[in-house]
Amino acid sequence: MWWVGSWRPAVAVATALFVYSSLLLVPVVAGTQGRAHAATAAPGTTVPGARTAAAGAPAAVDPEIHNDIRLRLDERGMLHGEETLTFNGTAPETFTRSLTETMLYDTDHDRNFDVSAVAATDLEGEPVEVRTEKIDGKLLARIDTAGTGGVVLSYQVTGTVSEVAQGIQMEWRAVGGYSHRVTATDVTVTAPLPPEALSCLAGERLSAIYCTASDMGEGSDLAHFLQADMDPQDRLDIVVNYPPGTAQGEPILTRRWSLVSAFEVTPMTSSVFGLLLVVLVGGLVVLIRVRGRDERALRKEAARGDQAPVGPGDQGRPRFEPPDGVHPGQIGTLVNETVDITDLTGAVVDLAVRGYIRLEELPHEHFTSVDWRLVRLDGPPGESLLPYEWLLMDALFGEHATVRLSRVGSRSTVDDFPARIDRVREELYRDMVRLRWFARPPHQVRGRWSTAGMVITVSGVVLTGLLAAFTSAAFTGLAVVIAGAAVTAGAQYMPAKTKLGSSVFAHTMGFRDYLLSQRSATAPAGQRVELYSRYLPYAVIFDDVDRWANILASAALADLSDEELTGDGLAWYTGPREWRIEDFADSISAFTVILTGIITNSRRLRLLNQRRLR
């Protein structure tokens, strides 16, 4: 078998790319069950500090060394070794013997040998100090040999026996390396039963040369091997086959680390994935159940909103009554759990229509120049603004009574426009809870689940890296990564409406269907301008502003007198002298686009400034 050093765990920082690429390797792992044995080889330098002859150095400095190795295999499968090292000449200060503990077994496993009871005596039986050290799959036995004519090294080895088709096979690296050149190495192996076959390999690393001699003799109960002139880096591997029942034992195998083996599919990892699948499917069922409340409400209650949103008003005139009193600024949060910039634009138009802001289109300084003056008004008597509407008015005007649209968001109007807009958004989220449409603010729910998902994902990546470095159960870590990624991806779906919120959502969707239909533009003459004006902010939210602006302009042209149309046109929207009601659709569309851009750019600028400060 090929020599291999002991497995050294290389703890790698696992990345998401490393983890998910491993998934592609799993089928390869599952299908690789080969048992092809390699030929035996030695490490590059068998014994650290081994002596080699320098150019021009006299060869007579080292003594002539012989090693007589006697190995006895008992019935329990333990190999007892006794080596007699003799020095013909001055013994070295220290002689080091390398005993192999780890060898390559097959493409996936290392074979381990448990070497124990290492001791040494001189030729008279007096104890000699021996120091052992484990390095790269070898047990180095350093023997103090100064002033001796030889030493006897003894040890025990388990893990050399394995079952083969013909019986029992004992496989062992009789010599893993010396610290000095050895003239002759004589190995004899005895066992409870006579050997049936034997083989050996010797020489340097990757060498496939047979040893100098081997025999077992007819009727003999021992196997004999001889290797002459072994340099320090040489090794001697022996294999002896015995009849069945000669000895007990099996090879000690450990799976060699590799990317493939680290992500091995085992019953344990498969069970973890099965459990993960159950959890994910269960969570999906619960989520569908909760989110399905909206769909069920749509089927049952949307029709209640799909009709003219009017009720009896003063003096018999119809009064606009949106479903459940929902305001344009609240719709976006109700529908997709997020306060969008369009929601704020629709809220500004709604404030104008309701009499809290007057939009005055200014004379065009040149063909492409367009601007508006926003005038702050007290609004109708007996009505009040919602908290988020107060904050929105404050963000637009600050301490001013009028402001140009082109100056909205500038420091000359308010110092902290982006922060004020953020407060409007926060208040809208709180509004959802206050109205009991959501149990908790949707953005907080999303944030918590997103954070939890990212923490789980990062933990899974780290866990996968650690498991890959030290075990073959890294596939289990992938389960955590997948779970974290699923939680992160599903965070946007976690905010769930209450039963009341689902009902209001259904009514609002019915109202949207009504506004987008032709039925909504059939109000009686004389009531259309007021009613269609109230529709317009909702049309901004539902992305139908151009159509409804034209409908409103046509209604005003038909219902209002020339005096009413001259200059002002609508009570909440006025234009310059050359402006006509026919221009209203283009004007209000431009206003919503520009206002949306102002709010968007101010928030982006704030994010950029925050990043620079960091």
TrEMBL record:
InterPro entries: YciQ-like_C (IPR048389). It comes from the Bacteria. Residues 298-329 are annotated as: Disordered. Residues 318-549 form the Predicted membrane protein YciQ-like C-terminal domain. The chain crosses the membrane at residues 272-290, 449-468, 474-493. Keywords: Membrane, Transmembrane, Transmembrane helix. Pfam families: DUF2207_C. The keyword Transmembrane helix applies. This is Predicted membrane protein YciQ-like C-terminal domain-containing protein.
